[in-house]
Amino acid sequence: MSDAPHGNLHLLQDPEFKDLANRKNRISLVLTAVTLVVYYGFILLIAFKRDLFASKVTGNVTFGVVLGIGVILACWLLTGVYVRWANQKYDAMVARLQEKAKHGT
Amino acid sequence: MGHSSWVAVSFFFAFVGSTLALTYFAAKKTKTAKEFYAAGRSISGFQNGLALAGDYMSAASFLGIAGLVATKGYDGLIYSVGFLVGWPICMFLIAEPLRNLGKFTFADVVAYRLNPRPIRTAAAMGSILTVLIYLTAQMVGAGKLVEMLFKELHLKYIHAVIGVGALMMVYVLFGGMKATTWVQIIKAILLIGGATVLVFMILRHFSFSPSALFGRVNEEMLKPVNKSPWDRLSLGLALMFGTAGLPHILMRFYTVPDAKEARKSVFYATGWIGYFYILTFTIGFGAAVLVDMKTTNLNMAAPELAKILGGDAFFGFLSAVAFATILAVVAGLALAGASALSHDLYVGVIKKGVATEREQVVVARVGTITLGVLAVLLGIQFEEKNVAYLVGLAFAVAASANFPALLLSVTWKKYTTAGAVASTVTGLVLAIGLIILGPDVWVKAFKNEKPIFALENPALISIPAAFVAGIVVSLLTPDPVAQAKFEDEKLRSYAGIGAD
Fold first, then answer.
1. Most exposed residue of A27, A38, A102, B464, measured as fewest CB within 10 angstroms of its CB?
2. Nearest Cα to B470, choosing from B129, B121, B112, B119?
3. Mean per-residue pLDDT for B238-245?
């Protein structure tokens, strides 16, 4: 196991690292909160509004079917939002910090 | 022997033959612990996404959900949605720190800045119990499937269970993670393809009008069953937080080279798995309309539907796909269980972290055999349980014993060794204890009048209790050394500096 972090503890004070950690925490928390709201909204409807699930949306396709598929798609899209952010922002910041760690600056 | 059996048998042999060939080639490259547990970190994000899908979509997803929807209607689909929602949670909270901090198992992460021996002992217990319950569910599914398929051959449930156990051991013993990965990738493609064809045939039966299909479903079946909101919430919590605590899933993150690939693999996995669960809406209600569940085993609705729509050949094909599904999952589970026994317990606890490569691989193989034998025995004991239900319990244990300990260790500076052990033990004991005192074991199995604990799933109590125990005990046992190490852990966890 590599013990590289020990030589790089000064990076903890680096504004770039602090910025990286803050941004990562913020986006993780916001996206987790959105996932929780979507899913527990679904669970609460199941628990308290069960008759709603059999109501028809188009033709005989019911609200329950549309909602369930909607929750699945929403989850996938949320992971997509995170990946997009990480590819555009996070990776570049990580690369810069790893470069600094390598050169010991 | 009937036509269906011939198709199924040839398909079995094709699948088993090709995966054994893969195992043979993988065996040549499986000499070190890194190769055995993590496929030498050589798997790409895309490949790992498919392998994660193959590792995750088990007998519960295919056989169990279809059977539940066919008998109870919308209730079964609550599992479809619940099994997926854990993936974004896994991505946002766990994936990158897990990959950056660990080596082979999630216990590596929890032990990173704490006292490794107590941590690894507790984490290994959580892993092994989760794996054993999950394995039992898969064995039951496999046994029923083979029994139904080979009625003419008089092949019995018990033979099937032993056969699956033996094959699983061969994949893992010789091919390690590399063979397991490819078995899982092939299976994911087969399952997603097979389910897509099944949905096509269901829709064709209804002249490609979903409206015509849902019009035939009994209205009560389209609603969730009237259950207590607490039961709903409890199962919901178990499914959502269980995924991020499943040892065989977490272990797959170490097969990719870095955190970026780990993140990519979750995105691909979520896409594949989500697509499959969307298909279960049509498969489940198709079975509810077309299959007579009075004469069909609870776990056999999907293969029976294939028989009605596509005749014996398609039935044989789909049964073989279901069988491949189970094999890929049990291989992943056996590997995860073996890593907990050997990497965490033997190397981490007994040998205090010092063991030769050869020793590590030998012990991992002994662990695999131990788990295989246990799984076969448990599969024989629990023959009559729905597999989705059993997997729901495994999720409850994973969400209570493993997830809180892992999440606290990557996010909370004041976490201590005693706190981590308290969290794991509390989650584990409460999850298992409340299942035993609950309606399914206490009433149905032990024949008592009333359950001592009213909920079917313990997660509502056991997850919060595990967090509270972890936090309270940590605050009572402050550990300045671990707090200082959290700072250096941050560099590695956020930026991958020094990651293995």
1. A102
2. B119
3. 94
pTM: 0.93
User: Residue A64 and residue B223: Cβ atoms within 8 Å?
Assistant: yes
Report the pLDDT averaged over residues B391-407: 93
The pLDDT of residue B289 is 95
Task: Please enumerate in sequence order all residues whose Cβ is within 8 A of that of B410, keeping only pairs 6 or more positions apart, or say none.
Answer: B93, B94, B97, B98, B101, B109, B493
CA–CA dist B468, B245 (Å, integer): 17
The minimum CA-CA distance between B376 and chain A, rounded to whole Å, is 34
Q: Note the Cα B253 to chain centre separation in Å.
A: 14
Q: Residue B152: CB partners within 8 Å, gap ≥ 6?
A: B1, B2, B5
Q: Name which of A31, A68, A83 is nearest B80 (Cβ-Cβ).
A: A68
B369-391: string of b/e by CB count within 10 Å (b at 16+)? ebbbebbbebbbeeeebbbbbbb
- CA B67 – CA B287 distance, rounded (Å): 8
Nearest-5° Cα angle at A82, A76 to A86: 145
Number of other residues whose CB lies within 10 A of the CB of residue B58: 28
Closest CB from A21, A60, A82 relative to B92: A82
Q: Residue type at B496?
A: G
| pLDDT, position B340 | 93
Q: Is B39 left (phi over 0), alpha (psi -120 to 50) or beta?
A: left
Answer whether residue A3 shows pLDDT above 90.
Answer: no
pLDDT grade for A6, boundaries at 50, 70 and 90: low
Distance between the two ends of chain A, CA-based, in angstroms? Answer: 23
Residue B333 has pLDDT above 80, yes or no: yes
State residue A16's pLDDT score.
Answer: 86
Residues ≥6 apart with Cβ < 8 Å to B489: A5, B101, B112, B113
Percent of chain B with pLDDT over 90: 58
pLDDT at B1 over 70: no
Q: Residue B344: which residues within 8 A CB-CB, separation 6 or more?
A: B105, B107, B120, B121, B123, B124, B127
Which residues from B are below 8 Å from A104, CB to CB?
A: none
B498 and A73 within 8 Å at the Cβ level: the answer is: no
Minimal-distance CA residue of chain A relative to B227: A47
The distance of B7 to chain A (nearest Cα, Å) reads: 34
- State whether B491 and A1 contact (CB < 8 Å): no
Q: How far is A53 from chain B (nearest CA, A)?
A: 5
pLDDT of residue B152: 64
pLDDT exceeds cutoff 80 at B310: yes
Whether the CB-CB separation of B4 and B316 falls below 8 Å is answered with yes
Residue written as token pair 């060939």: B21
The answer to whether B93 contacts A86, with C-beta atoms less than 8 Å apart, is no
What are the tens digits of pLDDT across the range B55-94?
999 888 888 899 999 999 999 999 999 999 999 999 999 9
Cα→Cα distances B496→A84, B100, B136, Å: 19, 5, 37
